[in-house]
Amino acid sequence: MTADDLVSLRRDLHRTPEPAWREFYTTARIVDELESRLGDELAELHVGPDALAGEHRMALPGDAELTHWYEQARTAGVDDDLLERLEGGYTGAVAVLERGEGPTVGLRVDIDALPRTESDDPDHRPAAAGFRSEREGAMHACGHDAHATIGVSVLERIAESDFSGTLKVFFQPAEEVVGGAKSMAESEHIRDVDSLLAVHIGLDHPTGEIVAGIDGFLAVSHLEAEFAGESAHAGGHPEQGRNAVQAMATAVQNLYGIPRHNDGATRVNAGVVEGGSAANVIPDEARLVAEVRGKTTDLMEYMKRRTRRVLRSAAEMHDCEVDVEPGAEAPSATSDEALVSIVADVAGETPGVERVLERDELGGSEDATFLMRAVQENGGNACYVGVGTDHPGGHHTATFDIDEASIGHGIDVLAGAIERIGRERP
Amino acid sequence: MTADDLVSLRRDLHRTPEPAWREFYTTARIVDELESRLGDELAELHVGPDALAGEHRMALPGDAELTHWYEQARTAGVDDDLLERLEGGYTGAVAVLERGEGPTVGLRVDIDALPRTESDDPDHRPAAAGFRSEREGAMHACGHDAHATIGVSVLERIAESDFSGTLKVFFQPAEEVVGGAKSMAESEHIRDVDSLLAVHIGLDHPTGEIVAGIDGFLAVSHLEAEFAGESAHAGGHPEQGRNAVQAMATAVQNLYGIPRHNDGATRVNAGVVEGGSAANVIPDEARLVAEVRGKTTDLMEYMKRRTRRVLRSAAEMHDCEVDVEPGAEAPSATSDEALVSIVADVAGETPGVERVLERDELGGSEDATFLMRAVQENGGNACYVGVGTDHPGGHHTATFDIDEASIGHGIDVLAGAIERIGRERP
Amino acid sequence: MTADDLVSLRRDLHRTPEPAWREFYTTARIVDELESRLGDELAELHVGPDALAGEHRMALPGDAELTHWYEQARTAGVDDDLLERLEGGYTGAVAVLERGEGPTVGLRVDIDALPRTESDDPDHRPAAAGFRSEREGAMHACGHDAHATIGVSVLERIAESDFSGTLKVFFQPAEEVVGGAKSMAESEHIRDVDSLLAVHIGLDHPTGEIVAGIDGFLAVSHLEAEFAGESAHAGGHPEQGRNAVQAMATAVQNLYGIPRHNDGATRVNAGVVEGGSAANVIPDEARLVAEVRGKTTDLMEYMKRRTRRVLRSAAEMHDCEVDVEPGAEAPSATSDEALVSIVADVAGETPGVERVLERDELGGSEDATFLMRAVQENGGNACYVGVGTDHPGGHHTATFDIDEASIGHGIDVLAGAIERIGRERP
Amino acid sequence: MTADDLVSLRRDLHRTPEPAWREFYTTARIVDELESRLGDELAELHVGPDALAGEHRMALPGDAELTHWYEQARTAGVDDDLLERLEGGYTGAVAVLERGEGPTVGLRVDIDALPRTESDDPDHRPAAAGFRSEREGAMHACGHDAHATIGVSVLERIAESDFSGTLKVFFQPAEEVVGGAKSMAESEHIRDVDSLLAVHIGLDHPTGEIVAGIDGFLAVSHLEAEFAGESAHAGGHPEQGRNAVQAMATAVQNLYGIPRHNDGATRVNAGVVEGGSAANVIPDEARLVAEVRGKTTDLMEYMKRRTRRVLRSAAEMHDCEVDVEPGAEAPSATSDEALVSIVADVAGETPGVERVLERDELGGSEDATFLMRAVQENGGNACYVGVGTDHPGGHHTATFDIDEASIGHGIDVLAGAIERIGRERP
Lengths: 426, 426, 426, 426
Prior knowledge:
The first copy, chain A, is α/β, with parallel strands linked by helices. Chain A has helices at residues 3-15, 24-38, 63-75, 80-86, 125-128, 144-159, 181-185, 244-255, 297-317, 337-348, 368-377, 405-424, and strands at 44-47, 93-99, 104-110, 165-172, 195-201, 209-215, 219-228, 266-275, 285-294, 321-330, 355-361, 381-387. Chain A folds into two domains: 3-217 and 333-424, Aminopeptidase (3-Layer(aba) Sandwich), CATH 3.40.630; 219-330, 2-Layer Sandwich (Alpha-Beta Plaits). β8 of chain A pairs antiparallel with β8 (266-275) of chain B. Chains A, B, C, D: Mn(2+) binds at residues 142, 144, 176, 200, 396.
C-alpha cells in the first residue's frame, strides 16, 4: 500500500467509527481491502461466528442497538451476503497467510470506536480536513482506525516478503468494552500461535518513538448497577419516595473515595449515570456504569469488593435496592524479553524512528492481555508494542487525532519484527 | 354522556398518554368528542395558535421529540387538517358555549401525561382490564385523563341545562412541566372570565369526598443544569479529567441538604440526571433537571438562590463549568370564599358525595395558579376543587389509577356549581 | 425588687453562665436571693435531690465535667453546705409560697446556659458594659438569666400581693439539652398544680410585645453516634484503615438530605462532630451529636428512623461500626385557651406592653412541654407565655442579648396573671 | 549495654511517650544515659537551642500544650537545669564522638511519640508486661522508643571500637508531624557529615530481615483548614445558619475523591476533624487537619492544588469562609548505592539476620529526607536502613509493638556499617 492508500483507508475508517460489536462497516471494509489486495494469497479469512468463540463475547449491546448499526452499515452499501454473516454482533476477522515452514506469528489489532461525539472545532484536523466522524455519538478517539490500517498493510507487506512461516492477523472487535479479546483467546485460531505481537499507537509517546515492550497493564473490571426505589410526587409527598438518584449520588461520591492501596495503582470511574423521569417525580430508578482497575488482579479484586460495599450501602441508606451486574474483565500481562529485544533491534534500524524505549508502563488496561496470556500459557511468547504519534488531544477525548506518518513506522517495525521472528524462531 | 361513555373516553385517553406539548392525539380526541356531541352549539372552539399565547409557552421539548409524537398521532389516525393546526407543540383547546346573558364562567382541566412507564402488574387495573398505556415511557399517572373527560362532559351537561351566561372550558396542555397555564393566562380567552373553577381528582382523598376549595399551592420553579468538564482515559490519565459526573453527584447530595426554612414548607428534587459516555472515560458532561418549591414565592426564591450556589460550587470543586437554564415557574394562589361556599353547598347535595371539606392544603404545585391569579387580578373569583377518588398508587407512581365512579361526582359538582354561579353571580 | 436589683441579678447570672446540670453557682445565687428577700415567708424551698426525680434526669454530663464546674462554683464562693446538696448534678430548685385557700399555680423558669463562647465585640453590650461571660466556652445565649430573675421577682411580688392560693416556682435546670423538665414533671411537686405558666423571652418578638399563648412546639430527640473503624498509617497502608471520619462525613451529608415531609415541619442538625487523632493516621473513631425535630411526635419518629438508617449505612459503607445512643426527648404541647385569655387580658392592661398576640408558633422545641402535659393530664391548665425583647443577635448566637426593660414586662404580666388565676380559678 | 539494658531503656521510653516538640522527659532520659555511659568520652553534647536551628522548627504546638508536657516532665523528676534548656519546645539532642582522623558519619534516630491512646488489651504485650503508656492519649506506636535506644547504644559501641573518624548521632524530635528534621538539616551540625545513616524499625518486615536501602519516600504536606459560618437555632431558624460542619463534611467526601494520578502514588487523609458546639445550634465553626502525599514533589503539589480547590468550594457551597493554614512538608529522597552496599554486606554477616533486601519502597513519608538531601547536596552520601521486627499491630495503631530482639540487630548492623565507613570512606 502506498502512503496515500494508508491515509485513505485510515480516514475512511475514521469517518465511519463503530462502537464495540457494531463494527459491521469496519469489518466489511477490512475484508474488501484484504480480498482486493491479497485475493487468493490468503490461506484463510474467517469472519462471523468462525472468527471467534461466540459464547465468550462479553458486554454485547442489546438487539435494538445492534439492529440500528447493522442497518446503518447496509445503508452505507455493505454487501448483503457479508453483512448477514456478521449479524448479531459477530464482528471482526482473522486473516491467515501461509508461507511455508516456520513459526506461526500472530498480530493483533483492534478495530472498534468509542461512544463519544467528535469535536467539530476547526483546529481539530479531522474536522478541518473533512474526515470527522459521520456516525453521531461515535468516534475513533483511541486510534483503532490506524491499528486496522496497520493490520491490513502488514499482511500485504509480509505476503511480498521472504518470510517463512504462518502469519495470522486478528482484527479484534470490542476492545473498548473489554469485551472482544476473550472470545478470540478462546477460539481455535490462537492455539498454534508461537509468537504474538499486539500494537497500540500514541499513549503519550511522540512520533518517532517506539516502545518495544509495554507492561503495566492494569487489570480491569466493569460493572453496571441498577438502583430501584419508589417514586412519589416531589411536591406532594417527598417522604413517600425512595430516591434512587440520591442513592446513586451517594455511591458516586464514595466510589471515588475508596482508599488508595499501598501495593500499587488502582482506578475507579463512574463512567455513565442516568436516572429519574421528571423534575416533579422522586426518582425511582437510576443506573450507573462503572469500572475499577488495579496494577494486579488482587488490587482489582480489592476495588471490586469496596465498590460492591459502597453500592450496597448507598442503596440501603436511601431504602433502595441495588442490582449489580458484573461486566467484562481483563487480567494484566507482561511482554516477553525474547520478543522485546527483537522489536527493539528492528525499531533501532527503522527509518523515521528516532528513539527506542525498551520498556514502558501502560497505566491503562487492554484486553489484548487475554490473547497474550493464552499464547504464553501454550508456551509461546507475546509482546505489546507502542508506536509513538503526536496526538493533540488525550486518548478518549473529543480532540484525539494521530500523526499519520506514524502509521508507516508501525508497519515497518512490525513487518520487520515478523520477518526476524520467522528467521530466529525465538 | 352515559356512564359508559365517560369510562370509554377516559380509558381511550389513558391508553394514549402524551406528555407536555405533545398532546396531539389527546387534543384531537377532545375536539372530535366536542364536535360530535355539541356540534354547532359551541360558539367557539379554539385549537392551535388561537387557543393560547404561543410566546408564553414554557418548557417546550425539542423538535425531534415533537416530531416523534406528532408522527405517532398521525399513525393513530388523527385527521391531517387538525393535526397541522397543532404542529410545533400548539396543543390544547378552548371551547366556548354562549347561553345568553349572565356571567362568564371558566373551567380549567389539564390534559397531559407524565414521562414514566406504567406498571404491568396484573393487580394494576389498567393492565388487567386492557387499557394500560400504549405509549412507551408515558403514563396518565396523575388523573388528567379523567380531567379531560370531566371537561367534555360538563360542557355537554351545561348545554342541556338552563344555565344563563357563558361557559369557557380550558383544556390546558403541559401542566406537569408547569409550562402550559401561563400561555392560556396570557391569552385573550381568560380576560372576560368572572369566575374560574379548576379541578383535580384524587390528592389522597377517597371516593365520595369533595374539597370545596384547595389552597396551599407551593410556588415552584424548574431548572436544568449542564455540567461541562473534560474527558480523559479513566485508566491512563484520570488526573487529566475534569469529572462532570463527580460534580453533579456532589451537587445532588448538597441540593437535598439545603436547610429547611422556618417560614414554611420547601421542596427540592433532582428529578432527572444523566452523564458520561463510557465506563473507561472520565465523564466530561452531565445534566441535571431539578425543581424547587416553597409555600410562598419568597421561600421558592430562597431555594433557588441556595440551589444556584450549590450547583456553582459543585462545578468549581471539580474544575468544571456549569450552565444553569431557568425553567418554568408557577406562583401560589388561594381559593375565593365566594366560590368555595357555592361548591361546598352544591357538593353537599350531590348524590354519592359523602363528605365535604371546606378547605384543604394541596402541598404540591399547580400552574392553574397562573389562571386563578389572572382572573383574580381582573376582579373575578377563582376556586380549585378537589374530587376524591380511591387511588391504589400515589400520584406520579407507576400504579396510580382512579375509581371511575368519581368522574361522575366531579361532573355533578362542577356542573351544579356553574349553574349556581350563573344564577347568583358571586 | 427595684429595677436596679433586677438588672444586677440578671447581669450576675449572665456573667456566670453554667450549662446543663452544672448550674451550681446559679442555683446557689437563686437560693441566696430567695432567702434574703423572702426568708421565712417561703413555705418550702427544695434543692438537690428533693427538688426533682433524680432518676429521670436526662443528658447528664460525665463526672469530670461535673467536678470541674462544681469546683468553679466553690472557687466563686458558694457556701459549702448548699453546694454539697447539689453534688452530682442535682441543680435547680422549687420554691413554694402558701397564701391560704385557692388554686395551686405553677411558674416554670429555666436557668441553664449554652456551651458556646460569647462575643467580645465592643458592639456586644455585655462585652462593652462589663458583664460578658466569665466562664470560658459558656454563655447565656437564650435569655435564661432573665428567666431566673423573673422567677425570683414574681415570688417576691406575689408574696406582697393579696393572692390567695399556693404559688410554686420551678427553677428548672438543663433545658438546653432537653434534659431537666422530665425530672421535675415526674416529681411530686407538679402533682397538685392546677394552672401552670411557663415563660420565654425574645423569640423574635420586640420589646413591648407579649404572646399570650405559644404553641407549635416541635417534638425533639437528641442522639449521639460513635463510629468505630480501624486506624492505619495514612501514607503506608491507607487500605488497611477503616475510616471513621469518612463514614461520619457521609452520614452528615445524608442526614441533612433526609426528605422533607408533607405532614409538616421537620428538622435535623449535626451539631457537634469530632474524630481522628493525627494528620497521618487513618481515623479509627468519630463522634457525632445530632438532633431531629418534628411538628408532631410522629414526624419526629420519622426523622429518627431515617437518621438511624443513614448512620447505620454510612458506617457500613466504610466498614465501620456505629453505636447510636439515644439522648433526651421532648414532646409537643399546646397552651390552654382558659389561661391564654387571662394572660392576654392582663397583658393588655400592663404599662409598657404595646401589642398583645393571642397565639404564635414557637418553631423550636422546649422541654417545658413535659411539665405542661403533666399538668394537663392531671386535669389542669397550662400556658406558655412569650415576652418580647429586642435582641440584636439571634437565639443561640454569640451576640444574643436582651433589652432589660422587658424583664419588668414579664414580671408584671406573670404576677398579674397569677393573681387573676387566684381569683378566677379557671 | 547488655540486652537487659536495651530492653529496660526502651520500655522506660515506651512508658513515657511524648508527642512532637514535647519530648522533655525523653530528651532528658537520653542525655542522662549518654552522660552516665560515655561521660567525658563525648566531645560535644548539644541540647536545647544549640541542637537545632530553632526558627526552622515546624508544626510547634501551642504554649498551653508545651507547658502541660513540660510540667509532666518536671513531675517525673527531670533535673531542673536540663529542663530549662529545653523550655519552649527545644527538644532533641546531638551527640558527637571524636575518634581521630577519618570521615564524619551521621546517624539519625527520631524520638517522638504519637497522639493516640495505647491498647489495654491483655493480648497487647506492653499492657500485659506493665510498660503500657502512662501518658494519656500518647503512645509509641511507630517504634521511636527503639530508635532512641539504638542511638544511645551505637554511640557506646563505637566508643568501644577502633573506629577512626567522627560520629554524630542526631536524636531528632517531631518526626511524626514532619516538623523536626528541617531544623536539624538547617543547623551547623549537619554541614560536615560525609555519610548519613537513618534507621527505622518494622515497616512490615519481620524480625531477622534487613533492608539495606529504603527509597520511595512520599513527599508529604500537612494543612489545617478552619471553616467559619454562622450559628443559628437549629429548631427555630435553620435557614439563618451557615453550616460549617456541613461544609467540612462536603470537603471530606470530596478530598478522598481527588482523582488518582498516572505518574505515581498519591495519598490524602482527613486525619482530625472537629466542629460545632451543641446539638441544637447550627455549627458556625469546624476544623480539619489533613495531609497529602505524592511519590514525587510534583505529585504532592498536584494533591495540594486539588485539596485547596475542594476546601474553597466546599466552604462556598455552604456560604462559609475557610482559612487554610499550610503545615509542615517534607521532600522525597533516595539511598545512595555506596552506602547501601556497605550496609547490605555488613547485614549479611550479622548474626540473627536471616534475610537482606538490597532495596525496598517505604510507601510512606519521613522528614529524614531533609537530612539526607542536605548531606547529598554537600556531596556526601545518605542511606535509610530498615530493621525488620515482628509487629502485631500496624504502625500507628493501638496495638503496635516490636520484637525487642530486633533492637540488637539494628545496633549490630549500624555499628558495623559505621566502622566499615570509617575504613572505606565511601
